[in-house]
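Residues and backbone
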Amino acid sequence: MQTIEAQTELKPHTRTKFKTGVLIVNLGTPDSPNTPDVRKYLREFLMDGRVLDIPAAARWPLVNLIISPFRGPKSAKIYQELWEERGSPLKFYGEDAEEMLQERLGDDYVVKLAMRYQSPSMDEGLDLFKKSGFKKIIVVPLFPQYASASTGSVFEKAMKIVSTWQVIPELQFTNTFFDHPKFVEHFTQTARKYMAENHFDHFLFSYHGLPERHMRKGDCTGEVCKLGACCDTLHSMNQLCYRAQCFETTRLMVKELGLKEGEYTTSFQSRLGNDPWIKPYTDDVVKDLAITGKNNVLAFSPAFVSDCLETTIEVGEEYKEMFEENGGKHWQLVESLNNSTVWIDLLEDLITKA
């Protein structure tokens, strides 16, 4: 009679090969550009304590009785401009990435797209992995720079979901990729195509804004964050600071494009409310560029991996109109990674290293 050890040695092909679940997570988008769906999205998004970081007792009436009812119809009109035959670009580019990445990684992985807010939900994706009995799960937030309101919220949500499971598999997170060579490559290669067609006298790098208090709360020392020259270099004490990472992204792209000091500006868009947000503000910069005689501007929005309301509409259309109204001549937006091969190369590298 053969021993158990001998039987195992004779039939190694019977051993199970474990798969890895990969959840790629973007911020989210309404299910439709209709006002009820936009309101639903706004409520879920703004009720996140990492996004609107005020006490829950004050957050609920502000979101549900003021922001959602009044802002919903206005936002719906903008989403209607953005919507395409396939739906929301942020969602269908994510679906493309899911399919392309699955093909690239092969049968050892199962890739699923999720949204932090709305659908497809993180709960659905992680539940699928749970029921499949995966030994390992990798969560990939699709935000180049770290912010508590984006990457941090995805981390928190994933851990909250998995913490309720009786059996918890190995859980791995990827973090930032603001300085990944493939990330820089996409934006600079796309920019060069436009630079070959036109002469640009200024280059604008516009990132999504955040309240200044988010930066200060993220400074664990309480001494580093000054919201100024402290972001001129990236070092061990500010390496997870959103503003510092944005400036570093600009420096890397500027170096690759061979731009000189004075030919480019880093700024922050999409501010809301009366509290101070990180500066300089993009709308102020756009007006100043036009007024001071900059006629041709190439604009980047490197805080996003998919073209969306903040890139296509805000940077591509609203800032263009503002620029031209103040005397500017030509405004061009550099597209996001969307469903490019370089984007899939980047994701594959993040996942295989994880």
In short: Confidence is low (pLDDT under 50) at residues 1-15.
